[in-house]
Write a structure and sequence with these properties.
The chain is mainly alpha-helical and about 240 residues long. The protein is about 70% helix and about 5% strand. Strand 2 and strand 3 (about 75) form a beta hairpin. Helix 4 (about 80-105) packs parallel to helix 8. It is globular and about 55 Å long.
Amino acid sequence: MDMSNKTSNAGQNLLDLAYDKLEELIVTCELKPGSHLRIQDLQTMTGFNRMPVYQATTRLAADTLMIIHPRQGVQISPIDLSRASLLLDLRRDLERFVISLASQRASDAQRRQFRHIANLLKTSESLTISEFNAYDSKIDQMVLSACGEPFLQYTLRPLHTIFRRIGWVYHSYTAGGESLDSTVEGHIAVLDAILSGKPEQAALASDKLIDFVKDMLPVLSDELPPSVFDVRMEFKQP
């Protein structure tokens, strides 16, 4: 056995695990938008040692989810709703492409997976936002896997995380976001469209889901205080 490869794989696995954990903490705003932390703080929160955490922060910075300040630590990227609106236009085109492609390329085994997830969502009595995000992440992974093009994963994963965080804020803090019914129905429609094997239907379902996300943005801007999007903007009454 090549021990160097084994060591390399173990290091990569720790990097991926640290990345996944930090990504989750960003999505759920446990790492508050705009907050500053030391690498040691992130080690404590994730339970991983310095090297995988440092490597994960480097990757998250490349994904524009963190900002690295040399010798000072890291900052969690604030939620910028104007930027999100621009990125959503980009995401619309990319999602339309990948979901249409998945509807054409998905194997029989992958279609069985899509059908299984769709049935689980259809029969779920109620979901928390955390439970739904687990489904959402799985669906994203399955769609990208069905496409069979690794470049798409590297392009779309940061966008998925950016908007999963926005969705978490919307469903956690706004009156209209209390129910997950609309977003669940939108994802079921996408899954059914992929299963249809018709790229035009898949593209339409994708656009409708993006429209739902677009409608979140003005609600967030109107209803929530700026400190939700950037902790540095918190106003303390005298």
